[in-house]
Design brief:
223 residues, alpha+beta, five-stranded antiparallel sheet, 7 helices
Length: 223
């Protein structure tokens, strides 16, 4: 994440205006997530994901809605690659503000109030999955759940955003070249979103190091 890069660089490496811009970047939404296993195969999830939209406008104010009004994304979980699904992961978008009361805590050392909050959220997620997709609930059991704080700590994402920095009109994301000699930025936060964006940013960073013409010629030679 670009903000963690600032922490790694020596003091005075960047101008205050650049640091303020990086610190002000808006992140993508976070989520509450449910991890379940099943005693029986779940062929309904083979080769597909399920999307549950409680209302036509549920993507408005995404993450800033009660779980019961939030969209739900369900994807298969497998014990072995290519096997029949034997569980699922449920994702409910949520803002990082939902867990702000415990933002000074770390994984493995959360207070009791956080654990009670998480247990309540987990129970609500289980009930919603059973309501929306009863064919999944008969033989499944929750084995774990996560919150925006979990995403923050395990994904090294300062605000717990699922996909790091957001790409949107009006937000000027960083470019590969920096003022620090030998330091180049790459990743989905730099040029465009997702896996393809991360690949393109790596290509651009390498172009700054090796020369864009040289890199393009090498790429064309692989055709």
């Amino acid at each position: 994440h670009p903000r963690t890069m600032l922490e790694l660089a020596p003091g005075g490496s960047f101008r205050p205006a650049y640091k303020n811009r990086i610190m002000g970047l808006e992140d993508t939404v976070s989520a509450f997530m449910l991890y379940s296993v099943s005693d029986i195969p779940l062929p309904i999830l083979s080769g597909r994901n399920l999307f549950v939209l409680p209302s036509a406008d549920c993507f408005r104010r995404i993450g800033n809605r009660p779980l019961e009004e939030s969209p739900l994304y369900l994807t298969a979980a497998r014990a072995h690659p290519g096997g029949v699904p034997r569980g699922f992961i449920g994702i409910f978008p949520a803002l990082s503000e939902t867990t702000r009361a415990w933002e000074d805590s770390v994984t493995g050392n959360r207070p009791g109030s956080y654990r009670r909050f998480k247990e309540g959220i987990t129970g609500r997620m289980e009930n919603l999955v059973k309501r929306y997709c009863p064919e999944l609930g008969r033989a499944t059991a929750c084995v774990d759940s996560s919150t925006p704080l979990t995403v923050r700590d395990f994904g090294n994402a300062p605000s717990g955003g699922l996909y790091g920095v957001k790409h949107k009109v009006g937000q000027y994301n960083p470019v590969p070249l920096t003022r620090v000699k030998g330091l180049y930025l790459a990743g989905q936060a730099v040029t465009s979103p997702g896996i393809l964006g991360a690949i393109l940013s790596g290509f651009m960073a390498c172009g700054n190091i090796l020369g864009h013409d040289r890199l393009i010629k090498g790429l064309l030679a692989c055709r």
